[in-house]
Amino acid sequence: MHFSNYQYTRPDVDALRKRFLVLTDSFETSANAESQMEIMQAINALRSEFETNYQLCSIRHSIDTRDAFYNAEQDFFDENLPQFEELTSIYYKALLHSQFRNAIESKFGKQLFRIAEMQMRVFIPEIMEELVQENKLSTAYQELIASALIPFDGSDKTLAEMVPYLRATDRNIREEASKARWDFFVTHEQEFDSIFDELVKTRNTIANKLGFKHFVEVGYLRMLRSDYTAGMVAEFREQILQQIVPLATELKSQQAKRLGLPSLKYFDEALLFKNGNADPKGSPEWIINNGKKMYAELSDETNAFFNFMLDHDLMDLEAKKGKAGGGYCTYISGYKSPFIFSNFNGTSADIDVLTHEVGHAFQVYMSRGFEVPEYYWPTSDAAEIHSMSMEYFAYPWMDHFFLEEADKYRYAHLVESLLFLPYGVAVDEFQHHIYEKPDLTPTERKTLWRNIEKKYLPLKDYDDNNYLNAGGFWQTQAHIYQSPFYYIDYTLAQMCAFQFWLKAQKNNTAALHDYVQLCKAGGSRSFLELVEYANLKSPFDKNVFGDIVVALRQYLKGVDEGKLN
Ligand code: ZN
């Protein structure tokens, strides 16, 4: 069956509520653990039915945000998701108070109860109105970004379609394209400011009603962080500042030298080599066929999985007008199907989708057998290990996609994943300040961002761009609007993915084995438990930084940049 035949039906929320409450009532009055576990199955089936329709709507809405039918359905979910959350919280409450908790825990493990506890702390019916408001604002941001049409090179371009121009070898094109892109943000600055201001205030109200001083703790609980604190994250950012920022700064200077420039302006940053970045050497169809070969050769598990994705048409990869920005992977539990969304634009980012999002999809495919839906995915700090590590396991096959430019791709990919770390922690630090001081004005927020940028990205040069000099850059970062406190997870996961990169060079079979085991474990354990289970060191362990920086420097020393340029 193809994705296009997956059946969408708008859920009947009242009927769902009735059926749900009958089940939770009988759960509470059950006489033994066995019957409670049977009722759990029935409850999870109901949750899956609702979730499946929500995912189908959300995917189809993001593929064409102008489609009137799914637009209306998305509005329906924005309005009704909090009611579903309330039902889930009723179930979690019953689960946590079960007199047979020990028996249930010995079957499913502790993690289910930790999740239930954390979710309970961030939901009370009194915040329903604010949750609806938060959903609407998040959708408003997504639609504003998707609406961007930038007149450039003879036609109107989406933000994704602008990407190739931003790394053109002709400096004038890069500069003009960059200015045209940022002009969209300048034109809509007030809308971006007011959406964000309302989001921050709404989230702050949610936190206060839940009994928290501000939204930071709520953010951590929503991300289901059970084994590290904001203090540990602050120390992690400090390690990045001390150990990674100097190396990243050196790499930026080297990039300027390769391009023959005294220093990099903001519109030069995306171009890594004077003769152009490495691009895939074929059409999207050719890329996917190469992907099929790669996953067939990588392992039996990846082969079966990738054929499943192709047979059911579970990837929507090409950029189109009206399509939401970015890329993601999600899971449609009713059809046991992962789904991958992206905006191919002819650059190496297309291959990163084919490894990164496929890494996520492979993990959820490997975890689809879990009886409790809480374990389909791990928390995102762990989930990003699956995706980022797959990017490294795919290195040997990059010759198929980039031909004579494969070394160039591998060098650029490694450098960019390193350069990402300072930016990633800057986003995180920004969000802590934003939610600790919810009353900052839009101008103060921008000044705050610019100061944090200067700390972690000291070489940023915005030339005469007033909007960026005033601190507007973050408005292009969807996570800051839509997924608060997600961003640090990429950097934590990156420090784990680098370990897989190192291990794969020493013993690829053993590294791949640990990786597949980690994927199979899904979300059945907490982040640091999963890290240990996969034989990785915790990213909060300061020694990890030393090991990785040494290895990266060694690799970079061995690369003849002149040959790549
Ligand atoms: Zn990801």
Walk me through what this model shows.
This protein is mainly α and 565 residues long. It has a domain at 3-108. It is built from 25 helices and five strands. It has helices at residues 13-28, 33-63, 68-96, 101-108, 111-121, 128-146, 159-166, 171-187, 189-209, 215-222, 230-259, 284-298, 300-311, 349-366, 380-393, 398-402, 406-436, 442-456, 466-469, 478-482, 487-506, 508-521, 527-533, 542-557, 561-564, and strands at residues 150-152, 155-157, 315-318, 328-332, 337-344. The strands form two sheets. Strands 3-5-4 form a three-stranded mixed beta sheet, sandwiched between helices. A hairpin with a 2-residue loop joins β1 and β2 (155-157). α11 (230-259) packs across α17 (406-436) and α14 crosses α15 (380-393). The longest helix is centred in the N-terminal third of the chain and has 31 residues, at 33-63. It is globular, with a radius of gyration of 24 Å. The two termini are 47 Å apart. The model has no long low-confidence stretch (mean pLDDT 96). Bound molecules: zinc ion. Zinc ion is lined by residues 356, 360, 384, 387.
Share of residues in strands: under 5%
- Cα-to-Cα separation, first versus last residue: 47 Å
Helix content: 55-70%
Which residues sit in consecutive blocks of at least 5 with pLDDT less than 50? Answer: none
Q: Strands of the largest sheet, in order across it?
A: 3-5-4
Give the ligands present. zinc ion
For the report, how would you describe the main beta sheet?
Answer: 3 strands, mixed
**Counted beta strands:** 5
- Supply the number of helical segments: 25
Task: Characterize the overall form.
Answer: globular
- Assign the structural class, choosing from mainly alpha, mainly beta, alpha/beta, alpha+beta, or little secondary structure: mainly alpha
Mean pLDDT: 96
